[in-house]
Design goal:
about 140 residues; alpha+beta; four-stranded antiparallel β-sheet; 5 helices
Length: about 140
């Protein structure tokens, strides 16, 4: 199995526009990622939270119908509520747990060589953008 990641994508003002499902489906079909679990969170202006897990997503977002017929239940209510703390009131979010299937072969080779992951971090997008802009302006 490749590395597994959880990501929370917030949409201020709940501005879902229908582009997420086709883009995510393309990644799945290209075997870049495998969606293991997914939930949608809606946070009201008063801070109350409601959510829908992937199994029920089609009722609320038809573009996700048949998206993933065999989810692995990695998100529970406690996880969702904890992650929802990062979402601003009046906004919504998609919480996606995915396997980086593109890295499966490399992961197996590392493990087969006795290697273990001792650190892994993502560089924030704003820092990468600033570095790329600085490199182009140099």
């Amino acid at each position: 199995m490749g590395p597994v990641e959880i990501a929370v994508f917030s949409f201020p003002g709940s501005q879902f526009n229908g582009q997420i499902a086709p883009a995510l489906r393309a990644l799945v079909e290209a075997e870049t990622v495998r969606v293991l679990d997914l939930a949608f969170v809606m946070k009201a202006d008063d801070g109350s939270v409601a959510w829908v897990e992937i199994e029920d997503a089609a009722m609320h977002a038809p573009e996700f119908e048949g998206f993933h017929d065999d989810p692995i239940d990695l998100l529970n209510e406690e996880d969702i509520m904890l992650l929802a703390e990062e979402v601003q009131p009046g906004s919504s979010a998609a919480i996606i747990v995915w396997e980086h299937t593109w890295a499966t072969r490399l992961s197996a080779a590392i493990e087969g060589s006795g290697g273990i992951v001792v650190a892994r971090e993502y560089i924030p997008e704003a820092i990468v953008d600033a570095a790329v802009a600085a490199a182009h302006n140099a």
